[in-house]
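Input record (one chain):
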Amino acid sequence: MKIGIYDPYLDDLGGGEKYMMTIAECLAKKHEVFVFWNNKVDFEGIKERFSLDLDKVKLRENIFAPRISFFKKIVESQKYDIIIAVSDGSIPFVLAKKLFLHIQQPLEKINTSSWKDKIKLGRVAGVFYNSHFTRKFDEKILSGVKSAVIYPPVFIPNLEMKKEDVILHVGRFRPKNDGADDFKKQSVMVEEFKKMFDAKQTKNWKFFIAVSIKDGDEEIFERLKSSAKNYPIEFFINKTNEELWELYGKAKIYWHASGYGEDLDRHPELAEHFGISTVEAMGAGAVPVAIKAGGQIEIITDGEDGFLWNSLAELKNKTQQLINNHKLWNESSKKAMLRAKDFSKEKFNERIISLIEQ
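The corresponding structure, as predicted from the sequence alone:
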């Protein structure tokens, strides 16, 4: 089959892009796979950032770009057996034999009201989500369309783990996103670690923050770095997948706080939609201490393979328990590694193939 894949956020180099390009890698083993994108540098960056084998995947002119005429998009799209597209709330009109939509976050609106939208919706063969959290907000809008939840893939390499007294956080640095000034709440975690250090609750411990930074955000990031001066807080910027796994292999505890302080009833999109980095950390034996919101709830069983918190006091308290109780940490670490296997790349590929080849 000839399959086209479109992700409008491909230049973000985030977890959603890893998700879509893992689909491309998987399907390219048996099919012709093309990615609609105009910038080869972005595509090469994805391959390097996430260590994906995309040699069999080819780039094609982005027929979804605004400058492309409706007629050209229609003509080009009918050359494909399947098109898989990330939806930002819109539904593309294509003449491929099948159209699958992937939704990565709760959307404020999905266009289904006009007669044109209803025609486009009628051509959708299926919708798949990255978590039940995402699905519960959007599925009711797309009622009547076949849907599934396919969790993101997490490949856990064979690690030589050399655990140190390290708390780790991994995430994009996004100072302005979806109306939030600090989407990943990295500044919140920095301040809480500083308080714990000042109270001598993290003696001899370090806080590692691994971030990817886009051009234009460097000045704001420098302010975050400056706030951590004179504390055992280290920043790791734009590291490769292999370098990130070295950090995971060192960390004993993993922190995640996306959604803290936000009105998640009104803006659920500000919570973590799934939490790939949380699963990666668990796979490396780091025990997660994550906010009880979004997709994190689907990953972690509180008190078993990790800990969930609602307040910063809980974050510090549960972290303190792990620091002071090696037996608790050791048991939680083993259970975390076991849980991470539920999100394997092999299981992801099986579900994608089952959806696409049905």
